[in-house]
Amino acid sequence: MEIKGVGVTMSTSIEPTTTVDARGATCPGPLMDLIGAIRDGESGDVVRLLSDAEQSRTDVPEWVEEAGNTLHEIEEHDDYTAFYVEKA
Amino acid sequence: MTDDIVIIGGGTGGAVLANDLAERLDDEIDAGEVRVRLLNDGPDHVYKPVWLYVPFGKREPADGRRPLRELIDNRIEIEDTRVTEIDTDAKQLQTTTDATPIGYDHLVVGTGSTLASDEVPGLQEGGHDFYSEDGSLALREELLSFTEGHLVLSVIGSPHMCPAAPLEFSFMTDDWFRKRGLREDIEITYTYPIQRVHGNAQIAEWARPLLEERDITIETFFNAESVEPDEGVLTSMEGTELDYDLLVAIPPHRGVDIIEDAGLGDRGWVDVDKHTLEAEHAEDVYALGDAAATGVPKAGSVAHYQAGTIGQRLASEVRGQVPTAAYDGKTICFIETGMDSASFVEFDYQNPPSPIAPSQSIHWSKLAYNESYWLTARGLI
C-alpha cells in the first residue's frame, strides 16, 4: 500500500495518546470509532486506531485528509493495521 | 434445582426471546425446572418504527405502544423495574424496586439504545429528531407548518437505530413536499459522516442516484461538531458550515451505563461473539439487538433473529446439551423511497444487500408489516 507522504512500517516509535481497538468491527465502524476519539481528544493528541477491515485502508486516509488532521504512520501487522492520527 | 433465566429489556429482542423460551421450554417451565423473568423499565413494549411516520401526521406514538403483559406468555414473569447494576461475578442484579438482588444462572442483555444529543453542543436546543416519542411529536409541530427554507437531515451518530431511516425520511420529505407543491421553495440537504451516503457500500451505491435525481443536496464526510440554534448554523469537524431553517438530526447513540460499569463493553454496547452472541467479558451472559456489538444494523429484524438463536442456545444449555445455534447476521429491512413507494433489502454476514426496485406494493408491505408487528412481538411470526 502506498499513501502519499505517509510512512508505512512494521513498527513505529510514535507514542499514541489513546488507542482505539476496532478490530472485528465492519466498516464504517473503525472510521466512526476514530472520528469519535478525535472528537473527544485535544489538539495534538495522537490516536492509534487498530483495524482489520480492508476498507479502513482507504476510508481512514481519506477522512483524515478531509478533516485536516495528520496521518503520521501506518503500521502493518499480520492480521490488522494500526493508523496513527494526530488531531489538528 | 431451577435454572433462572433473566432477560433485561422488553424491546423486540427481549419480547421475542421471552415468548420463544415459553414455547421452547414449555415442559421445563411447567415442571418448575426453569424460571424466566423479563425485567423492563416500564410497563409497555414500544415499537419504534412508528416514529418515522409521526412527523408527517400519519401515525401517533401511541400506535407503537402496548402493555408487555398483553404480548408476553403468562408463564414469563414480567417485572417493571430498572436494573442499576450487573454483577457478573456474583451473577446478580441490583434494581430500583428490590432491596434484594435478583440472581441469575443465564442473563440476556437487551437494553437497547439511548440518545446522547448532549454530546454535540447546541444539538438539544437546535435540532429535532424522529428517534423518540417526544422528538417525533416536536418535529411534527415544525414539519407540518414548514413551507419554505432549508431542511437539513444530518446523520450525526453512527451506529444508530434503523440505519435506513435517515434515507427514508429524506425521500419521504422530498415526495411529501413535492406532492403538496412546496418543493421548489424548500431545499433539502442530507449529511453523512463518511464518504458515502450510507454505511453499507451497496445501499450507498443504490441510494446516491436516488438522492441526486430528487435534488437532495449531499454532504458527505460531515461529522457535526456543534449547532448554533440562534443563528441556525450546523458546523462539522471537517470545517463545513450549513445554514438551516429546520435541522433534523440523527443524534449520537449510546447504550445504558450499566453495561460499561459491568465491564461488558464500551458506550453501553456489549462485546459479543457475533455468531454465538455470548458476551466476551463474562460467563453465562448473552446480548441481543441494539445492545449487542455485532456490527450489524441496530434494527428490529436483527433483534428478532438473534432472539431465535439465543432461545435455541439457552434451551440446549438448560438441558445439558452443547449449544450449536449461531446467528448468521441476517437482517431484513424495508426502505421507504417516498410516501407511497419502498424498496427492500435482505443480507447477512456473508451476503451483501441488493436493494430491489422501489414499488408501491413494497410500500404497502411495509405498512402491513408494521400493523402485524404485534404478532412478531408475541412470537407468532
Automatic annotation (TrEMBL), chain B:
Residues 4-307 form the FAD/NAD(P)-binding domain. It comes from the Archaea. One of its GO terms (molecular function) is oxidoreductase activity. Pfam families: Pyr_redox_2. Gene3D superfamilies: FAD/NAD(P)-binding domain. InterPro entries: FAD/NAD-bd_sf, FAD/NAD-binding_dom, SQRD. PANTHER family: FAD-DEPENDENT PYRIDINE NUCLEOTIDE-DISULPHIDE OXIDOREDUCTASE (PTHR43755:SF1), PTHR43755. This is NAD(P)/FAD-dependent oxidoreductase.
